[in-house]
Amino acid sequence: MGTFKKLLLEIVKCIFIQVHWLIDYIIDFLFGLYYDTKAQKVPPVKNKLLLESTISIAKKIREKKITAEEVVRNFIERCREVNGLLNAIVEERYEDALKEAKEVDKMLSEENLTVEHLEKYMPLLGVPFTTKESNEAKGLLHSMGTLSRKGHRSDQDADVIGYVKKAGAIIIGKTNIPELNQWIESRNKVYGQTNNPYNTTRGVGGSSGGDGAIVTSCGVPFAIGSDIGGSIRIPAACNGVFGLKPSEGYTSLVGIGLRREACLDSMAEAGPLCKKAEDLELLLKVISGSYLKAPLDVNSVNLKNINIFYQENSDDIRASKLSCAARNALSRAIQHMEQITGCATKIKLPGTEYSYRLWRYWMTQENCDFPTDLTNNNGKTTAAAEICKLLKGNGEVTLAAIIKLIDLDYFPKENPEWAKNITDIMKSYIVEKLKDNGVLLYPTFNSARYHCAPFSSPFSFGYWAIFNVLKVPVCQVPMGLDDKGLPVGIQVVAAPNSDKLCIAVAKELENGCGGWVPPS
Fold first, then answer.
1. Strand order of the sheet with strand 269-274?
2. What is the DSSP letter of 27?
3. Is 440 in contact with 311 (CB distance < 8 Å)?
4. Strand, coil or helix: 272
5. C-alpha span between 46 and 68 (Å, rounded)
6. Under 8 Å CB-to-CB from 181, ≥6 apart: which residues?
7. Is 392 a catalytic residue?
8. Which residues contact 103 (CB under 8 A, 6 or more apart)?
9. What pLDDT score was predicted for residue 15?
């Protein structure tokens, strides 16, 4: 009887997966009929400087081979060229950035500072960057993409933004996000929708979507995002760049979102997005400040001695089926690393079939109150109230926010004991399996979908969110383009405090499998 029950469950599961795939297929087909004739991509980069890594540009500025003003001006010109198409930057500070760049050049000409001194204390000197609108930057907008906070400005920097500025970088703009960061597309009623640089009919991911779009378009060499459920890695995947979520407690969350405390035990971390893997180590060192728990000596990693593990899918039936391109990206990464290490072992991380449910539970343990935040602390809204406003034609929040409220107000909560037990089992397994010399190659999920299509598949972000639950380091690695010209990638996961392994493998996959491909 038990065998028959298991067989029946497997049959039902297969039917559900195929029905889900059919729904996704029909939606993509119908959306394609509407969108495909409207597709555009960003124009080609004319200035080769914009293609270089953060490290390369910073080195040229230190060595006075190029001025900071020239660097910042060139990137600003690129932002102006592409942003009308993308709507990635929602607030610019171009004139102030140019003034700061001129001050950098003046300092370099007047003060007797050695290249070694600058590299140690101001390793990002003169390099422009952006950050998502939800990360505080003094004097700049901080609406969180919600109408109740429209026009609000920050009176201080988030800790991580302060660290980046102290390292010499120059912020040139704030980028678009979903409302209160709670969706997998970057769209809100304050700034509108951000378009994908590879195909403007596609989304850019969320919540650091504007950052992903402007980085891959060469509007800045790097950006600083944040990640509580894939919010760095989803945009990195959709836009074909590198995105790193560090280990638990590696970055202060003061000024990230609406937080006023460091929150070192949160699922969330700040992290970088960049085109070149060589930038990840430096950027993580800068934003971690004094919170770095283990040396980031990536060059000391001997790739031949790393144990490679892989998992082919999450088995979470709520998620959409992986595309051929996503599966092929993982296969190429496995084959490449297998050639170096001699072996790659297939595993099944226990509990990934509950990826969304586990993340949903642990979000209730975070220090945030979505219904209150939507009103900017002026009361507590409900799903019913917002649906009524929508039906009357005066809706003030996005559909994504309403879906979140429906989930909070009407769906049963996850069992805490169950969620904690499964999470403990998963953590023990991944720590024991990976130790301090192993990585897990894990699917990224599929390439960017048409705008609004993710509403048909709201649970697929569990492919990213499960590693927030486990609070382990994970790097989103670009693996080229699919047959539609859209980025595909994989995730490289390590045990806690083994961030250097993620970065080392990301660099190797970049060398062996292509890495970032310009949108045009």
1. 89-92, 170-175, 128-132, 222-227, 269-274, 242-245, 474-481, 487-494, 438-443, 307-310, 344-346
2. H
3. yes
4. strand
5. 19
6. 132, 134, 144, 145, 206, 207, 226, 228, 231, 257
7. no
8. none
9. 77
Inter-CA distances, 80 with 73, 141, 186, 224, Å: 11, 19, 20, 20
Catalytic hit among 134, 148, 207, 266? 207
Q: What is the CA radius of gyration of the chain?
A: 22
- φ, ψ at 256 (rounded to 5°): -95, 115
Place of tokens 């059919």: 22
Name the catalytic one among 60, 132, 165, 500.
132
Rounded Cα distance between 518 and 241, Å, is 10
Task: Check: CB of residue 175 under 8 Å from CB of residue 90.
Answer: yes
User: Rounded distance, CA 502 to CA 439, Å?
Assistant: 7
- Stretches where the chain sits below pLDDT 70 are 1-2, 4-10, 13
Which residues make beta-bridge pairs with 494? 439
The one catalytic residue in 231, 266, 314, 320 is 231
3-state secondary structure of 441: strand
**Active-site residue, 143 included:** no
Summarised one tens digit per residue, pLDDT across range 136-146 is: 999 999 999 99
**Chain mean position to CA 205:** 8
Phi, psi of 389 (to 5 degrees): -60, -40
Comparing C-alpha atoms, which of 279, 255, 278, 285 is closest to residue 268?
Answer: 255
CA dist., res. 176 & res. 145, Å (int): 8
Joined together, the tokens standing for residue 429 give 């397994």
The H or E element containing residue 390 is: helix 383-391
Give the dihedral sign, CA 403/408/410/413. positive
Among this protein's residues, is 314 annotated catalytic?
A: no
From residue 167, alpha-carbon distances to 170, 295, 353, 453 in Å are 9, 19, 42, 40
Q: What is the pLDDT, as a whole number, of residue 7?
A: 66
Largest Cα span, the chain:
84
Q: Which pLDDT value is given to residue 11?
A: 75
Sort 410 into a burial class: Cβ within 10 Å, 0-12 / 13-18 / 19+: exposed
Of 464, 468, 362, 452, which Cα lies nearest the Cα of 400? Answer: 452
Q: What is the 3-state secondary structure (H, E, C) of 406-429?
A: HHHHHCCCCCHHHHHHHHHHHHHH
Q: Which of 341, 342, 308, 312 is nearest to 327 (CA)?
A: 312
Omega before 217 within 30 of 0, i.e. cis: no
What mean pLDDT value characterizes the chain? 96
Q: Which residues are registered as beta bridge partners of 438? A: 307
Contact 152, 236 (CB under 8 A): no
